[in-house]
Amino acid sequence: MNREIYENPLITRYASHEMAKIFSDDTKFRLWRKLWIALAESEKELGLPITQSQIDAMKKYKDDVNYDVAEAREKEVRHDVMSHVYAFGMQAKEAMPIIHLGATSCYVTDNAELLILKEGLELIKAKLVAVMDKLAKFALRYKGMPALGFTHLQPAQLTTVGKRATLWLQDLLLDYDNLCHLTDTLKLRGVKGTTGTQASFLSLFEGDGAKVDKLEALVTERLGLKKSFGVTGQTYPRKFDYNVTAVLSMIAQSAYKFAGDLRVLQNMKEMEEPFEKSQIGSSAMAYKRNPMRSERMCALARFVVSVPVNEAMTACTQWFERTLDDSANKRITLAQAFLALDGVLNLYNNIAENMVVYDKIIRKHIMAELPFMATEEILMACVKAGGNRQELHEKIRAHSMESARLVKTEGKENDLIERIKADPAFRAVHDKIDSVLAPENFTGRAEQQTEIFIRNEIQPVLDANKAYLGIEAEINV
After folding, report:
1. Distance, CA of 408 to CA of 403 (rounded, Å)
2. H/E stretch holding 273
3. 393 is known as an active-site residue
């Protein structure tokens, strides 16, 4: 680490080595060489005067990038692609005349970027599925454990701890579907020439448009994709970058929601993120157990959520066939969005696998609020026993208001049930109240919903992605 210059914390602290490697210069420049080889092979197959020995010379050096030569050349000519064409040619001397034949810079830069995005999306998908697997296991484990539900961050009807986890899963399932659509429809820029008209290739093939079409199909196939964009300017549509970052943003939104919920639950002491044996929560307050991983998730997710606005502006300002102000911007935004989300999913995987549930605190919070929620059940039971609904309703209202006042103003325990038990008007249900107050009576179909949702909607995803299950999260700090 060079401490004299700024180092990107996404690399040094948050993202995995695997994701950092995908967006590395080495990956990019090796892809450039792969693209030049695919182009030469396809042009040779269609009859252009390119020899097998020229292609063999290129293949010999496909992974041996002579960076010193390329960097020295770029200082001289101020053009990164032509510098690497020169450097490649200095190694594969026999092939120098045919490297990059008919192509424009965006043939390698844009096609390589799309291949890098594809690989990055696959890694995001792997980690997303791994999170879904861990949350599904958690949801099933706690599917029947009652918990206080909240609307408006105020106590509401009961749910279960497992059912709440399915809400986090539902968000991720939507993200997974969007991610799959994006990867399934990803296309190469293809072989289009300087302004997308394929004029240079039409000239190479002496006006034979069918061969130009075949060239693009061959190159696309050699690079492992099914399709290229039907039309482009000089670049692939920058709107696609917006689509990519929009999907990343959606995953980040889901992660932020989960981490925010967990931070509130940790404040309530109902649930907790993992806390290492020697971890320090505060430099001043030694007793603290801060939700630092969830907070970091939110911090990184916030950045990812913001990126699509940047890509939207890039898409807006691509005048005619292309402007260059996208280039420097893309070097920053796309890579950093992937690196940041990778860091988010590393944390999500770690937390989802090791969440702590404090069932006694959850029960305590339920019993502090349940008397209010049980009043309808008590009222109905009394009416069935011959009571007057209006009179009983007024008595429950009065008891509830007084009990709530004492809780809020004097800090006393909720004594609503004791008040009802002491009121002769409710004599008919005095011996039934305790059974009415069982929290399990108030969770509706939460447990069944959890089972059905995971069986019908989550398990098929897990079955289709078994290779991604059990991924270990890499957390550096």
Report:
1. 9
2. none
3. no
**In angstroms, rounded to a whole number, what is the distance separating the alpha carbons of residues 32 and 108?**
5
Tokens representing residue 471 in the block: 């991924």
Token pair of 39 as six digits: 């182009």
> What span, in angstroms and rounded, lies between the C-alpha atoms of 138 and 123?
23
How far from 463 is each of 118, 132, 175, 458, 475, CA to CA, in Å? 22, 12, 17, 9, 27
Residue type (1 letter), 388: N
Nearest of 378, 462, 373, 464 to residue 151 by alpha carbon: 373
274 with 362: CB under 8 angstroms? no
DSSP state of 431: T
Among residues 152, 278, 283, 435, which one is catalytic?
A: 152
Length of the chain: 477
Residue with tokens 């691509």: 318
> Do 178 and 247 form a contact (C-beta atoms < 8 A)?
yes
The predicted structure's pLDDT at residue 170: 98
Q: Indicate the pTM of the whole model.
A: 0.92
pLDDT 10s digits, 141-187: 999 999 999 999 999 899 999 999 999 999 999 999 999 999 999 99
- With CA atoms as reference, report the closest residue to 184 among 192, 176, 196: 176
Q: Which of the following is catalytic: 278, 282, 306, 403?
A: 282
Q: Give the Cα separation of 146 and 316 in Å (integer).
A: 50
The burial class, CB within 10 Å (0-12 / 13-18 / 19+), for 276 is: exposed
Which two three-digit tokens encode residue 273? 């993120």
16 noted as active-site residue: no
Q: Is 74 exposed, middle or buried (0-12, 13-18, 19+ CB in 10 A)?
A: middle
Residues 66 and 71: their CA atoms lie apart, in Å, by: 9
Map tokens 């404040």 to a residue.
267
In angstroms, rounded to a whole number, what is the distance separating the alpha carbons of residues 102 and 107? 10
Rg of the chain, C-alpha, whole Å? 31
